[in-house]
Amino acid sequence: MQRHRVGRLATVSAAGQPLVVPCCFAVVERDGEPFVVSVLDAKPKSVSARDLARVRNIAAHPAVCLTVDDYAEDWSRLRFVQLHGTARVLDGESGEALAAIAVLREKYPQYRTMELDEAPVIEIGQMRVFSWSASGSWEGRPDDLDSVIRGRRSVRSFLPDSVPSVVVRRAIEAGGWAPSPHGRQPWRFAVVESAERRAGLAEAMAATWDEQLRLDGQDENIVRIRLEKSKQRLIEAPVLVIPCLYLADLDVYPDPNRQEAERIMAIQSIGAAIQNFLLSIYASGFDGGWMCAPLFCPEVVAGNLGLAEGLIPHALLPVGKAAKDPARRPRMPVDGLIAQWE
Ligand SMILES: Cc1cc2nc3c(=O)[nH]c(=O)nc-3n(C[C@H](O)[C@H](O)[C@H](O)COP(=O)(O)O)c2cc1C
Predict the structure, then answer these.
(1) Which residue is closest in CA terms to ligand 1's atom 11?
(2) Euclidean distance between CA atoms 17 and 14, whole angstroms
(3) Pocket of ligand 1 (CB under 6 A)
(4) In this predicted model, what pLDDT tens digit does every residue of 73-96 receive, in sequence order?
(5) Strand 239-246 and strand 287-288: pairing?
(6) How many CA atoms lie within 13 A of 11 on its CB side?
(7) Which pTM does this prediction carry?
(8) Phi (first) and psi of residue 268, to 5 degrees
(9) What's the pLDDT tens digit per position in 148-159?
């Protein structure tokens, strides 16, 4: 629901009169607890922020409900989320209000230029969440952890629709929360958006692909088709993200065994960071793929992008909107994943 632009806030007056108003909102976290925040901003209003009916209602009855919904003529795509919680109005100068406004400004570009000094903020906490959807198969994705884990899929063909840079930034930030050896985060993400650079990268990698396909003894025609397909994937996807290993901050050991273990730990953790990245992209309503191609020509990729010293490209993640739902590979039943021993 964080992606939704508007919610409907229900409050009740001292006399028991219900009121529903549309509002822009964001979700913030404090001490591990989520809060919904909405600023009483400078959109035209007939009374001052403090005299708004919703503010007076919250003073009388702090219990509120925020509903966020999606309507479509295809009723299999209907869904709503209801948050029941306790609201309070934060003084505009308080640190909590300023932090809330910063998050709202990240979500809504309109707030970045709006004067919000001393603007009070409605904060809803102690939330209970109720959600309903007619079907889980539409674009606005269920955002509970299990649905995101199972819903993420490797997409290999993309629509030309652009991806907001905030979506990619959020996914990289999610990557940063992955476990890593000594917490050193031994990876960086290179983001390639321009069509020209994507085409240039595809062209640069094509020589390696060509060479490898020929080594496999593939038929000339098949080589040409597969080459075109791989190039197309890089050109089609509106954003390419190249996770790079960065070993400079890792521990240095006198013996090669431990040094190699340190490097392997970094490689393990880049996988965890990539998975966080892909889950975040999926939860934001977009899709990603995972191409291992840079592993086979890291110097070509680094040289083509002009990457800083020490960055070793390990994968290539095309990001965008899926052109079609990909076929999913079946998963083993859980018992098959549990190692057996005597
Ligand atoms: C290390 C790694 C490398 C991969 N390389 C490629 C690749 O080069 N091309 C590709 O189409 N998919 C690649 N994949 C994606 C897998 O094929 C995909 O995850 C798998 O088929 C399961 O499908 P799903 O991701 O849709 O669940 C890679 C995945 C991993 C983890």
Answers:
(1) 291
(2) 7
(3) 153-154, 156, 290-293, 326, 328-329
(4) 767 667 888 999 999 999 988 999
(5) unpaired
(6) 24
(7) 0.66
(8) -60, -45
(9) 899 999 999 999
